Amino acid sequence: MKRRCGENSHETSSPLTTRLLHDIDIPLDLTVEILKKLPTKSLMRFRCVSKLWSSIITMRRDFIDWIVTRSLTQTPCDAHRIFNMNLRCYTQCYLSFSSTNARNTHKESVSIPRTAGQYVRGLFLCLPCKSLEAAISNPTTRQYFNLPKMKHSGKGNCFFGYDPLENQYKVLFIPKEPAEQPCQVFTLGDPMAKQWRNIQGIESQFPIRYAYREICINGVIYFITRSTDTSFEYNKLISFDIRSEKFHHIDTPKTLIKLGWFPINYQGKLGLMYCKDCVEIWVMENAEKKTQRWSKIFFYEMAGFEKWCVPGVTRGGEIVFSNSGCLYDNDVLRVFYYNPNCNSMRYVDLEDIYPKESRPKTSLFIWTIPDYVENTMCLY
User: Which residue ranges does the record assign to the F-box domain (predicted)?
Assistant: First the structure.
């Protein structure tokens, strides 16, 4: 009797369970809301559950936007790029994440095959040493997308930007000698645009020798150019509208564009920062108008900043300081945060992420990205 009951139980439970599983039909909207409750690491694992789940997590724009927004509302997370440098060439890049609050400090690191350069909305533009074979890296999904080769070879600079209205990521290439080669643009994720496109060059509007120091804010890439006149007085601040793909000159006081100034994202506005014998920040107040107005919002005179650089400012207004020179195997890996509102300083120690005994016998560089966000977007 016992055996018969066991057999009957076994015979009826398996088909019933299978039938119940097949009968469950979860509405799409409810599925999306359930997935939104999960941490990003779990979402990355659950991509393999079904094609539907994978599509929601990595391709659905409203879901991806929600993940990015969620990152901004959580405890601020900073990404620290640690480069190995050998014979004047970056050979390896580690991306370390740190989030700090009163109760918990969480750290982790990711190895990136190439040098992680410019950062936009959770993605990195990567360039190998001595090459223009650009690639895009997404540390959240652990994906790496190689961009196609450019139509014209030659030295130059690649800039990375995002337009929130059109939901487009674009890579802009400006040749070192703009008079000889056209500027090029590549649109990430556009199935109709699988190659670089030539656009109207910057040389026809602003004669320059080369461009450098870039920041992307609200669909506009800002960068500094060196004029054909080698005098520092002729540096210019140029903007590139990602949607229209047009260049514009930004009116800037000449004293703010000399050697040593660089653009930053200051709480959603374009800022220019100087960090040498003092720390000085100016912010552009009316970016949408033809004539720009600049305001000095911070000045702190202090010696000893020559060996430091300022990668940016956090959402909370903290100024980030990292060492601008080479760090060696015995140096301390540390990033400082200064709060001008309460005149306080804190730091993040990266020693346990990259301990001295595991470092190669090469010089190191650190660059911090304030307010890093997670992005579940699929790159291919």
Answer: 26-66
